[in-house]
Amino acid sequence: MRQLRSVYLVVMDAFYTFLADDGWAIASHIALSTLMALFPFLIVLTSLAGFFGSKELADQAAGLILQTWPQQVADSLSSEIHDVLTTSRGDALTIGAVLAVYFASNGVESLRVALNRAYAVAETRRWYWLRLESIGYTLVAAFTALAMAFLIVLGPLMLEAARRHIPLIVETNENFLNISRYAITILALIVALFILHAWLPAGRRGFLQILPGIIFTLVASLLSGIVFGQYLARFANNYVTMYAGLASVIIALVFLYFIAVIFVFGGELNAAIIKARLPHGGSLQAAQSLKPVDSRA
Q: Which end of the chain is more exposed for a tag (fewer CB within 10 A), N or C?
């Protein structure tokens, strides 16, 4: 009972701090910034794929990005994404691509703001270093997506080669590619969450300090995707009736809002657990290798 009470107190502390930190409004900011950053990111992806000589990789990479999204949400954006991916552009060093990288990095900046609030830390780094860091994360994400897409493209060739030597084993695993796509996406999501919580906000947190929020974010996001997908399967027409041609954008925005709420609460949950483990009089900022910046600990 004592452990259950401790868990209850930590969760409630995270919830009330989420409210005090304007979590709902921050989640709205993240959702809108992410949606606005999605298409510039796809432009960067297409430019890089064309630079390496295979724009089909961009299509594969976009499919991986949307792999864990509910099918109804991904389908609602499929035509717009297809238009972005099939539009001819110059190489990756054009002014348009540079601007696309900058605007795509806005999504990373919105996540930084959310995590700085969640962990109650004040940002002391120069703004231009932060922007360069966000751009770096954006480019790394694009290269990683292309690399994973390349592995997916090679998948059928590897299966065909394996089928010649071990046909019985391969024939019984025809769904291997679909499973591997989903597994690769989940793995990439886990790595991304670790990077975001550990290094994106100010201060430094250890592996065990950020693990609970990451597990919560991952599980809750997958469950919310399933629930939201079931909801859309029954009531998607309501969005079409209410928003007409904007229905696809609103559906994506609502889904991203739910995911953003989960992400922000994951950060608040980590902070609440860190505070609960501190000795009496301990500082939340000191636990993250920072000097105290307020009295919230």
A: N
| CA distances from residue 117 to 215, 263, 296 in whole angstroms, order as listed | 20, 12, 11
Phi-psi region of 120 (alpha: psi -120 to 50; beta: other; left: phi over 0): left
Two tokens at 141? 């994400």
Backbone angles phi, psi at 145, to 5 degrees: -60, -40
Task: Give CA 1 to chain center in angstroms.
Answer: 35
The per-residue DSSP string of 54-81 comes to -THHHHHHHHHHTTTS-HHHHHHHHHHH
- Cβ distance 263 to 219 under 8 Å? no
Rg of the chain over all Cα atoms, to the nearest angstrom: 21
246 vs 244: CA distance, rounded Å: 5
Q: Which tops the pLDDT comparison, 168 or 68?
A: 68
Q: How far apart are CA 108 and CA 210, in angstroms?
A: 18
User: With contact defined as beta carbons under 8 Å apart, do 293 and 203 qualify?
Assistant: no
Distance CA 175, CA 112 (A): 38
Q: What is the pLDDT of residues 111-137, one digit of tens each?
A: 999 999 999 888 888 888 999 998 888
- Quote the CA–CA distance of 231 and 94 in Å, as a whole number: 42
In whole angstroms, give the CA distance from residue 105 to residue 35: 12
Q: State the average pLDDT for the chain.
A: 77
Instruction: Summarize the confidence of residues 251-277 as an average pLDDT.
Output: 91
Residues 6 or more apart whose Cβ sits within 8 Å of residue 153? 56, 57, 60
Name the packing angle between helices 247-276 and 71-86 (round to 10°): 110
Q: Which residue has the tokens 């809750």?
A: 220
- Residue 293: band (very low, low, confident or very high) from pLDDT cuts 50, 70, 90: very low
